[in-house]
């Protein structure tokens, strides 16, 4: 099997590769550095031997992946060198022929680091894996020239000169909104744990590029609970996400607030998705808010979603919008309400009717009348429903 150490098979055989020489069994198992140099391939200077297994010329993706696995278990310079030879003889490599041994040695260190970083990541058992890519032997300047953005407007996603740029599916899947000027993003945009920093950055810069970067990060955020975006809904999701980030930023920059906000699972949700999950608290009812209301943080949810307080909250004079909504929530939790459960399609109309009823009650109380008025089951009824119910109460036998 070659070599003087008959107890140790050539590296390629230990990796489980087959010879690349086809049916020609006469090829020697090892290949000398001089023959490799004739092919424009270099062994690294750190590798002390002057030859290496011929199997290392196998530059297929499966062979390189197998060598990565081998390296993760046996950290050996020979295996790194074998992978480096395979990389140089693969379709993955896009850097052109190396200029000489010095250039090859620099490239070798980059490939080693790339492999080590990928193996360290893959050992975490995450839902996605890293591998050897065309970027592994490139300098930062070379990577920047291959970031894959559309050059027509000259804009980059994120920083002006990213260390690299990934398209959807390269490492992680993501969907870009139609406003994006390119088709790839910086590495930091792919990491869900960066979402809060990227959201702050987007709020402070206000640029579309920074919001897109944060949006991609959010898609890989562990707190996200909506399904994977499609081309049909991504623009609407992006619009809601931007609105959420801006609201969070405004809250955190308001010195009068005693609390802070952050990006969470609600940030890309439509109202009908967020209502059942809002606040994560179990109440006697699933509260339905009017879609026009956005100041959720100003609501005392425990105090408002309390049916026993419905009349008390309805009777507060000169109510502001938050107080009207609070009374509306209490009404929904009370025994007074006997209309069907609201839906997202009708809750705004029901709220407007309820609010109008409370205003009328207050106006009547302020006038000089001899009767008393207050909150009743009619408060959220439409005029048509009121007439129908009143008609049922008429004695038709007379």
Strand ordering within the main sheet: 1-2
Fraction of residues in H or I helices: 40-55%
Terminal Cα span: 113 Å
Number of strands: 4
Task: Enumerate how many helices there are, as a single number.
Answer: 16
Backbone CA Rg:
33 Å
Show unreliable segments.
Answer: 1-25, 147-163, 278-284, 393-398
Overall pLDDT score: 79
In terms of DSSP E residues, the strand content is under 5%
The general outline is: rod-shaped
Class computed from helices, strands and strand pairing: mainly alpha
Biggest β-sheet description: 2 strands, antiparallel
User: Which sequence of SSEs, written as H and E, runs from N to C?
Assistant: HEHEHHHHEEHHHHHHHHHH
If you had to describe this structure to a student in words, what would you say it looks like?
- With 398 residues, the protein is an all-alpha fold.
- It contains 16 helices and four strands.
- It has helices spanning 11-14, 33-38, 61-73, 77-88, 101-122, 140-144, 187-190, 195-205, 208-219, 234-252, 271-274, 301-304, 310-314, 321-332, 347-366, 383-392; strands spanning 30-32, 51-53, 166-167, 184-185.
- It is rod-shaped, with a radius of gyration of 33 Å.
- The termini are far apart.
């Amino acid at each position: 099997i070659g070599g003087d150490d008959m107890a140790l098979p050539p590296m390629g055989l230990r990796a489980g590769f087959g010879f690349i020489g086809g049916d020609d069994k006469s090829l020697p198992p090892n290949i000398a550095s001089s023959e490799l140099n004739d092919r424009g391939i270099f062994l690294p200077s750190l590798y002390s031997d002057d030859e290496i297994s011929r199997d290392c010329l196998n530059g297929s993706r499966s062979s390189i992946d197998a060598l990565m696995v081998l390296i993760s278990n046996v950290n050996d310079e020979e295996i790194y060198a074998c992978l480096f030879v395979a990389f140089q003889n693969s379709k993955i490599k896009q850097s052109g022929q190396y200029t000489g041994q010095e250039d090859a040695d620099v490239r070798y260190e980059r490939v080693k680091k790339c492999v080590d970083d990928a193996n360290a990541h893959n050992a975490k058992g995450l839902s996605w894996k890293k591998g050897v890519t065309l970027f592994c032997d490139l300098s930062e300047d070379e990577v920047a020239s291959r970031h894959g953005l559309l050059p027509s407007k000259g804009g980059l996603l994120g920083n002006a000169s990213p260390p690299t740029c990934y398209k959807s599916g390269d490492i992680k899947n993501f969907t870009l909104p139609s406003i994006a000027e390119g088709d790839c993003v910086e590495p930091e945009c792919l990491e869900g744990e960066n979402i809060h920093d990227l959201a702050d950055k987007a709020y402070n810069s206000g640029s579309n590029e920074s919001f897109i970067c944060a949006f991609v990060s959010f898609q890989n955020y562990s707190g996200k609970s909506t399904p994977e975006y499609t081309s049909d809904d991504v623009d609407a999701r992006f619009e809601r996400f931007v609105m959420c980030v801006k609201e969070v930023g405004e809250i955190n920059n308001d010195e009068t607030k005693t609390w802070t906000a952050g990006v969470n699972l609600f940030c890309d949700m439509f109202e009908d998705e967020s209502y059942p999950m809002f606040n994560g608290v179990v109440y006697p009812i699933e509260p339905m808010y009017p879609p026009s209301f956005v100041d959720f943080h100003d609501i005392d949810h425990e105090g408002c979603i309390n049916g026993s307080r419905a009349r008390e909250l309805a009777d507060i004079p000169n109510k502001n919008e938050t107080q009207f909504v609070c009374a509306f929530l209490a009404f929904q939790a009370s025994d007074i309400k006997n209309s069907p459960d609201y839906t997202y399609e009708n809750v705004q109309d029901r709220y407007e009717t309820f609010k109008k009823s409370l205003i009328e009650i207050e106006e009547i109380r302020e006038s000089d009348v001899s009767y008393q008025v207050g909150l009743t089951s009619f408060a959220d009824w439409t005029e048509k429903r009121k007439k129908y119910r009143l008609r049922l109460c008429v004695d038709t036998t007379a």
